[in-house]
Amino acid sequence: MILLGTLTDACGATGQRGWICRAAYELTGSEDFAKVAETVSTPIRLILVLVVAAITAWVVRRLVARSLRHARDNDRISSFRIQGDIPQLSDLELQRREGRFSTLTVALQNIASVTIWVVAGFVFLDQLGYEIQSVLVAISAISVVIGIGAQQIIKDFFGGLFILMEDQFGVGDVIEAGNASGKVESISLRVTRLRDVEGVVWWIPNGTIAEVGNRSKEWSRALLDVEFDPTVDPGSAISVLEGVGAEIMTDPEWSSRITADPEVWGVQKMNADSIQVRLVVKTIPLEQWAVARELRARIDVAARAAAVPLAGQPITGPVGEGNPISPNRASRPSAPEGEAGNR
Predict the structure, then answer these.
(1) Burial classification of residue 111, based on how many CB atoms lie within 10 Å of its CB (0-12 exposed, 13-18 middle, 19 or more buried)
(2) pTM for this structure?
(3) Does any domain span residue 240?
(4) Which residue range(s) make up the domain with 245?
(5) What torsion do the CA atoms of 47, 51, 52, 56 make, to the nearest 10 degrees?
(6) CA dihedral defined by 160, 166, 167, 168, rounded to 10 degrees?
(7) Strands 220-228 and 212-214
(8) 206, 252: one domain
(9) Is residue 309 one of the residues assigned to a domain?
(10) Is 185 a domain residue?
(11) Half-sphere exposure of 180 (CA within 13 A, CB side)
(12) Using CA atoms, how far apart are residues 298 and 248, in angstroms rounded to an integer?
């Protein structure tokens, strides 16, 4: 025989009544049935909390992936250009963009998942009857201690996040970051790994990168300051460099690496020992050093042929007319300072 009672007897005072107990009592009018429903309601609520959290996390992860995929495929958004022309990206830059957005997707998905499950954890504890305020106070105290000890890790995390979002550099770039320079082998939210020209691997926490120079962003430039003998007419020196620039553009092997006609900027410096003339060539990323080496070899040959001696390399007439070439040649101009990639 089912004994009927009051709602207060079945479910407690107004502020303590669970909605499952109240609904069961209102449907059946049975105090015992309402108490049984209240007993089983706690595990049901806990299961519901976990199910809702799991579904929410799945949906949010899908939304993050879809949103970033849309941003990746939109050239204006992915290049952070609200106005102006959109740059044409090479295959290498497209691969870099793909990797950058993949890393961002994973990072933001993880942040969203952690946030959702932390909130679900608080709700879970509340359903078990714990005082959430006390739990929050304890967690806050622990967070302060952890935050003090993990300040650098947090700084590294946000530093890496902004590096990826702003595309400051990517895998394959040659960069200078503080005292380290080299080719980027990997980037995570916490650390960037470089390998310099000697093969040394550098691990740089992202939070310590105050400034960075990227030698392979979109395009590069080979810059040569060629030193001629001080007796050489500057016009003749410029003509030699212009001829070499025009010649290299007719060579398919090298013209494919050069994106604009070579330019002779003129005399950079004059002293008692030499006349320094600057030649600049715009190249595709990471090809500036190879192009510079080829140009030096061609300048050497052209200068000899034109009887326009380089500094420390006296020539009395055109090569091939019996004129000796001094064996005491000055060293060729050095490679661009800071070359750190694959030479």
Answers:
(1) middle
(2) 0.60
(3) yes
(4) 219-343
(5) 160
(6) -70
(7) unpaired
(8) no
(9) yes
(10) yes
(11) 20
(12) 8
